[in-house]
Amino acid sequence: MAAADTAHQPLIIATMAPVLAGALLDCYPSNLTEQDLAGDRALPGTLKGAVAFIHHRATDISVNDVAAAVHLTPRAVQYLFRRQLDTTPTEYMRRVRLHRAHQDLLAGDRSSATVTEIAQRWGFAHTGRFAVLYRQKYGQSPHATLMQ
Asked: Closest Cα partner for 59 from 15, 119, 129, 137?
């Protein structure tokens, strides 16, 4: 990689570009939010509507609610999310709620806010499961984030 002629080798560049991009994304957290998907011109309008609905409501909604909001069947919504975003609507909703909980933990007052209260506010009834999901996504416990 350090050799000067490496930049002129298309096979090496094509192979290393995704590896480098992945490493950078792992090292530097993105400030791109899921909300930004609603403005993506390449996505179908129905999916943009579903994403916007999820971001607007965030908690206490189901796939049926999303489907009703965009005038599709629940199965069609599931297919749309899988095909366009490679995820399920339920997983997408969970990521949005986890992101909102993360924001609240970062902004929380250590003296009055609790992890349990924030987790429950965003629809995570089981604090232990919330902590596992949070650690997988953000690399530290929700309590550590709150104490920062």
From this structure: 119
Q: Are residues 24 and 10 in the same domain?
A: yes
Q: pLDDT by residue (tens digit) across 14-51? A: 565 555 555 554 454 444 444 455 555 577 889 999 99
Number of independent structural domains in the chain: 2
Instruction: Indicate the pTM of the whole model.
Output: 0.69
Burial class (CB in 10 A: 0-12, 13-18, 19+), 45: exposed
Cα torsion 20, 22, 23, 28 to 10°: value is 120
82 plus 137 within the same structural domain: yes
26 and 37 housed in the same domain: no
What is the rounded CA–CA span in Å between residue 97 and residue 122?
A: 6
| Domain enclosing residue 103, as ranges | 33-148
Please write the tens of the pLDDT for every residue from 48-82: 999 999 999 888 899 999 999 999 999 999 999 99
